[in-house]
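lol ok so funny story. i was supposed to be doing the assay writeup but got distracted and ended up predicting the structure for this chain instead. priorities right. anyway since i did it might as well share w the group, maybe its usefull for someone
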Amino acid sequence: MNKPGSKMEISVIIPLYNEQDSIRELSEWIIRVMNANQYSYELILIDDGSNDNSWQVIENLVAGNSCIHGIKFRRNHGKSAALHCGFNQAEGEVVITMDADLQDVPDEIPAMYQMIHNQGYDLVSGWKKKRHDPLSKTLPSRFFNWTARKVTKIKLHDFNCGFKAYRKQVIKNIEVYGEMHRYIPVLAKWAGFTKIGEKSVIHQPRKYGTTKFGLDRFIKGFLDLMTIMFVSKFGKRPMHFFGTAGTLMFILGFLAALYLGVEKLYFVYNKIPYQRVTESPYFYISLVLMIIGTQFFLSGFLGEMISRNASDRNDYQIENKI
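and the output, tada:
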């Protein structure tokens, strides 16, 4: 039970979709761990538009324990939306996120809490070192994580592991949207929280139901990776990207057109047989380069105008002030 007036130590956030068979078992397991370690806690269960009896199970759990809270979406919005709502409601100094399928083991929570509370980590990501998943899931995941490490320079083995621990300040200063739950460590680093650690966690075989994710998540994952890297580098200065690319393309096109013009003048002056400039494929290539370069430049200019009028253009993460 939570002591009145004291700071809440841990918030556990569990997004779920059609997990009616595992919710009660997982909740009771978490509560046993919390009581054994005498943590003050809250458990936030987020029903992402389930069409089974998940919400009825949550209602019964909430009625029997004041530390359990429930959020229900009218329809399925995805894991990022569920985490966003959970982060907004969380009050604990350390926030734990877990999947609802009983593949994550709540016994790992105390060690992850200690890494945040005592060792000063901003974020600790679980690493399912020994996975109980088919090769169709593990092999693409390894390639995906390798690519993410190379692109983001964050040395984590498992970006997509749902079992993570956060300092409260981290989840209150990032915005999770779309499919960005895979890249919360990147969002945290972007927000200035650089002490990111990793802990090997037990991964159990799925006990009930089937996985809700298909191979399409890896395609979406790579697209989201490109999005987040672009936004993190050029979100507030789009002209640096579009303007540079547009200028280079325009210059290349202009130089190619200039070469064709000079070449024709040379042939005319020396009375050498020549073909029309418009008969050369290089003319059209140079023309396309100049048009695309101009469009890129204008895109950067419009992006700058939009960015300068954004409400968060001067929203900087201030860690301390004296």
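Residues 238-269 form the longest helix (32 residues). The chain has two domains: 10-234, 238-308.
back to the writeup now i swear
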